[in-house]
Amino acid sequence: MAHQVDFSAFQEKTKPGTEVKQVIGVASGKGGVGKSMVTALLAVAAAKKGLRTAILDADITGPSIPGMFGLEGRPEAAEDGGLLPLVSAGGIRVMSMNFLLDRVQDSVIWRGPMIAGVVKQFWTEVHWGEIDVMFVDMPPGTGDVPLTVYQSIPVKSTVMVTTPQTLVRGIVEKAVDMTKKMLVPLSGLVENMAYYTCPDCGKRHDLFGPARGRELAGQYGIPAYLALGMDPGLTGLADSGRIEEADDSAVMPFLEQIMN
Q1: Helix (H) or strand (E) holding 130
Q2: Which tens digit of pLDDT belongs to each residue from 116-131?
Q3: Is 187 exposed, middle or buried (0-12, 13-18, 19+ CB in 10 A)?
Q4: d(CA 128, CA 95)
Q5: What is the mean pLDDT of the chain?
Q6: Which of 110, 208, 211, 258 lies 20 to 30 Å (CA to CA) from residue 119?
Q7: What is the C-alpha to C-alpha distance for residues 232 and 216, in angstroms, rounded to an integer?
Q8: What are the residues facing 130 on neighbouring strands?
Q9: What 8-state DSSP symbol labels residue 164?
């Protein structure tokens, strides 16, 4: 059994004037399960509740948050050399690697330590201001970036994202195991692509097999569970940079649970 270590002593300080009351990580061991979509929906719901909301995009090599919010351009520099986050139409403050590239199509070909260093700088060198809740969109896996986030940032809890496939579940459980070993509470589990509702007949179809997320949440003592269906309309909003127009009625109760 692996030895558990308290990493709170390694947490990095933020810029003067920055106060983040609550940090929630969004993670999964598996890629392509919709972590960024879940991050965006949670942030949109939080902002609609009147909370001062931010997203730290820790997916350095594959950022998709800026596109969902229709954000582009470079962040402004502060007098002390720090950076100011870009702000969405709904007031959500965002920092992402895409804002630092000459072209969004440019690849980031870096080794793990460099990528982890940038994630740490997004926390320490950005003037976030006063934030009620910050969501950290993490890349898949259990490597450098999640480790850096858990060590350097005071993450209050993590939301795990999965899909119904058995193979996906097995990989997601590795991320659950890591989160527990890092002594970070798991506040919620989102089962994305859990079903598809036919627009013609209204019948619900389990395209990737029956949803098992509630069972997984119960197995690991994760208190909040949310099943999200496949929604071409939602995908269209994300692709056109209009995710803030999404219906948050299903997400809002889940958000209230994970923030308690």
Answers
A1: strand 130-131
A2: 999 999 999 999 999 9
A3: buried
A4: 9
A5: 93
A6: 258
A7: 26
A8: 19
A9: S
